């Protein structure tokens, strides 16, 4: 993609002949800025997308909501990933379930109580099978809504809203009654997103987000590959025109 008009240049060839070069549609580097659907935050380190859902749900309903968007409640593989989560602004001014300066989200861990004698002894587990290698949280703060009959508590990650606290990575881990309602953090693999913000399945052709609606690529592991560009002629009989940013070879004539 590039120039639509024909750029004619002259140069003197061997033997004094005039050679005419036509430069049409000069190729440009292809850059893709979006690997997650709208509303999700991308982290290159894990090739994953993250989203906080503000509608308060209990732990089990939150699990199902994440599954419906091809994800799961978030677990973390390294400190760097957790620091990325803590540093984000999650647009949490509304629908708060706790104080405005500190937020708690359900995440994908459960605390299994093994001894209720003098202190609650137990250990963290990943809440669902098949997840990749993850680190487990430190000893939790126990929530106020605990039941004496519960032997399994669910994990809440507490983030802080103030920028200075956020960027210092301050946070806490809570073990809470799983039927309490809370915001929650979903995690899914990065995906191909087309120019109209639709999610594209593996192996399918699509036009990625960017400045070229005439680009066709194959979705492979959440990345556009094997891209081919169509070339468009400028509209005939129209001096001033506007390209449609999302439709290939579609123009609007601006002449009177």
From TrEMBL:
Which PROSITE patterns would you find in this protein's record? C_TYPE_LECTIN_2
Judging by the UniProt lineage, the source's domain of life is: Eukaryota
Q: Which GO terms describe its cellular component?
A: membrane
- CDD domains this protein is in? CLECT_DGCR2_like
- C-type lectin domain: which residues? 45-187
Sections of the chain in a coiled coil = none
Which Pfam families does the record cross-reference, listed alphabetically?
A: Lectin_C (PF00059)
Matching InterPro entries, A to Z?
C-type_lectin-like (IPR001304), C-type_lectin-like/link_sf (IPR016186), CTDL_fold (IPR016187), DGCR2-like_CTLD (IPR034010), IDD (IPR042378), VWF_dom (IPR001007)
Protein's name according to its UniProt entry: IDD protein
């Amino acid at each position: 993609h590039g120039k639509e008009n024909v750029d004619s240049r002259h140069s003197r060839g061997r033997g004094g002949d005039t050679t005419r070069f036509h430069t049409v549609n000069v190729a440009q580097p292809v850059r893709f800025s979006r690997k997650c659907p709208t509303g999700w935050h991308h982290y290159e380190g894990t090739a994953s997308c993250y989203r906080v859902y503000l509608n308060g749900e209990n732990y089990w309903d939150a699990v199902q909501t994440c599954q419906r968007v091809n994800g799961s409640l978030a677990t973390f593989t390294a400190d760097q990933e957790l620091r990325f989560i803590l540093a984000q602004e999650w647009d949490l001014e509304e629908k708060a379930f706790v104080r405005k300066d500190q937020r708690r989200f359900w995440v994908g861990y459960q605390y299994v109580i093994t001894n209720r004698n003098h202190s609650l002894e137990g250990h963290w587990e990943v809440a669902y099978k098949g997840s990749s290698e993850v680190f487990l949280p430190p000893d939790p703060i126990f929530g106020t809504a605990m039941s004496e009959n519960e032997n399994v508590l669910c994990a809440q990650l507490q983030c802080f809203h103030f920028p200075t606290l956020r960027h210092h990575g301050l946070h806490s881990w809570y073990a809470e009654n799983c039927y309490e309602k809370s915001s929650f953090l979903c995690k899914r693999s990065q995906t191909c997103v087309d120019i109209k913000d639709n999610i594209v399945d593996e192996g399918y052709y699509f036009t990625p987000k960017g400045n070229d609606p005439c680009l066709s690529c194959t979705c492979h592991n959440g990345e556009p590959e094997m891209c081919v560009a169509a070339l468009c002629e400028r509209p005939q009989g129209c001096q001033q025109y506007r390209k449609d940013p999302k439709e290939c070879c579609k123009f609007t004539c601006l002449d009177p």
